[in-house]
From TrEMBL:
Descriptive protein name: PREDICTED: nucleobase-ascorbate transporter
Keyword Membrane: yes
Organism of provenance: Prunus dulcis (Almond)
Top-level division of the source organism's lineage: Eukaryota
Keywords assigned: Membrane, Transmembrane, Transmembrane helix
PANTHER family referenced in this protein's UniProt entry, alphabetically: XANTHINE-URACIL / VITAMIN C PERMEASE FAMILY MEMBER
InterPro entries xrefs: NCS2
Homology family: Belongs to the nucleobase:cation symporter-2 (NCS2) (TC 2.A.40) family.
Amino acid sequence: MAAPKPEEISHPPMDQLQGLEYCIDSNPSWGESIALGFQHYILSLGTAVMIPSFLVPFMGGTDGDKVRVVQTLLFIQGINTLLQTLFGTRLPTVIGGSYAFMVPIISIIHDSSLTSIQDDHVRFLNTMRAVQGALIVASSIQIILGYSQIWAICSRFFSPLGMVPVISLVGFGLFDRGFPVVGRCVEIGIPMLILFVVFSQYLKNFHARQLPVLERFALLISITVIWAYAHLLTASGAYRHRPDITQVNCRTDKANLISSAPWIKIPYPLQWGAPTFDAGHAFGMMAAVLVSLIESTGAYKAASRLASATIPPAHVLSRGIGWQGIGILLNGLFGTLTGSTVSIENVGLLGSTRVGSRRVIQISAGFMIFFSMLGKFGALFASIPFTIFAAAYCVLFGLVASVGLSFLQFTNMNSMRNLFITGVALFLGLSVPEYFREYTLKAFHGPAHTNAGWFNDFLNTIFSSSPTVALIVAVFLDNTLEYRDSARDRGMPWWVKFRAFKGDSRNEEFYTLPFNLNRFFPPS
């Protein structure tokens, strides 16, 4: 038997991911684009509903307040997505709410000056205004780092090797939002997970009118079937005598969103009153803004692969971060109770559907804005049990993580140096945040617990983020361990051409601003 040739053993590295039906600047038909946009909108509801549902009751808010916050978050989510896809990185990314802001926001909620307020509604409004003020001030971090191109300069220290743990942990680091949540209601979570995998992978070659319907709309079909099944279980009284925690996670009528939602409500700036400003709150929130910046950097690079585009050049990445800062400023002005970051689940859906079209994401932004103003209709979709979304996250977060691992193809993984950096960064990126989470659950405060609340919030927020810990470890090791003689092993010969806009001719096709705006903002 003849020995296999080298090209039969390994696969050559590829700048752009193959196998996608539509890339960033190619579009499906209008009908298909609208349906895919609606699917992205439905997926974005998970985080948009979960964050206010968790925080508003702690603030003294009612179900009506919760609905208004969800509507406002969806409204700003749509605006930020449009801004990012038009003027930011121009990648097909949904800009949604972020869990990174939870630590400083919970700290504000527990501030003694706010908890001492007896009237629940007044306490809710005062807490909301305090969060708004902190977000407005903290947004300046991303605005300055982005538009001054400081983040572009920082990104010159990144390499494919250093980015592998960061991008991978953008997905893997969210493992606690996956099966641990599915396990809270296995009778709807497990069927959803199985159905989604079967439709998107095993039956993906099923065509109707030359369209791979089951692959393209696997998420939408699965959610519809399991949502109807969950409603049937609810209506039949299957959960009538079950514990409250089970009912919250399984029933379709426990969110109280539809009954509390107005028919029409248009969010507007300062709708909760004038924001209040506190230096300690703002400083703690700045840590969340930095975490959001790092997580989004990894997500943008993953999205570029799943949209079959080149890696965004440094100035395009920095431009996107600047617009994301504007987005956080809008979060503060309108009062969304969280800041903005790239929606990881929607990035994963690009790969699941094999459609990386920018137009699809812009249509989904239109759905967000439209249904945020039509309260009852938006609340109907938002009442989908979160367990159903968690089942989809098990697939979509894993897909994004594997995109991060795909960057290893540009590095030399026969190098002990590279193995050390990758392994240590991945392990610490998972282990350190898990320690911070476990500690907080047991002690009801983070490991950083001094008299300076802002300092506690800063450290607890930074080290609770897997991609942030991975970036600190991987970039430090990659730029200090034998870095002079390891440029090729790190993947720098491939990476360097994407640093500048003119380094690759394809960048102009993917990242040029619309309306001929490059005349006024020439790329560097």
